[in-house]
Amino acid sequence: MTRRVLIVEDEHEVAELYRGYLDDYDVAVANTGAEALELVDADTDAVLLDRRLPDTSGAEVLASIRDRGLDCRVAMVTAVEPDIDIVEMGFDLYLVKPATRDDIQSAVERLGTRAQYDDALKRTASLVTKRAVLEAERTPAELRSSPEYDDLLDSIESLQSDLDDLASAFSADDYRMLFREMGDSQSSASESV
Fold it and tell me: Which residues of the chain have pLDDT under 70?
């Protein structure tokens, strides 16, 4: 079954480039937030969403998708450097432009894998992604002074304790990747904070 991917990108050339990277998928393109909200529906499996759109922010589009209860996975693909505000966003992956063919294809594959996770695992994967992005882009001093970052770490720790029962839901490769990321991020966090 071919997965349906919605690319939300205001730069037409970039959107078409991404479409070309995903020729094995059913791809739709939206160049505005309003257009994205018209196209996204229950059949959409994955959304590649820019944060800066001409008519609204990607964060608002993402919030509308989540408010509508659509069960699609969302990757922010943007030139906006991540800041602590990403903790409150409901995305699954965050890619900083420029994004290569491998970045886009890998993101869609990872989103497809995450769609198979149960809710606790989806939330953990999203939170771990946010932690990794913040740790890569922010200084240890900025993170130490952030109550939101502390809350993020607490949430991850709490969810990790509940994941033992979910191990059977993972593919072997995805299981190794997720927990390797968690371990790497946790080691980085304890060393830098």
Answer: 1-2, 116-118, 162-193
Q: Does the global pTM surpass 0.70?
A: no
Tokens of 44: 């959409």
Sheet arrangement for strand 26-30: 26-30, 4-8, 46-49, 73-78, 93-96
- CB within 8 Å of 78: residues ≥ 6 apart: 49, 50, 51, 52, 58, 94, 95, 96, 97
Residue at a domain's end among 114, 148, 182: 114
Q: What CATH number did the domain enclosing 108 receive?
A: 3.40.50.2300
Range of the domain at 92: 4-114
Tell which residue, 144, 124, 126, has the closest CA to residue 135.
Answer: 144
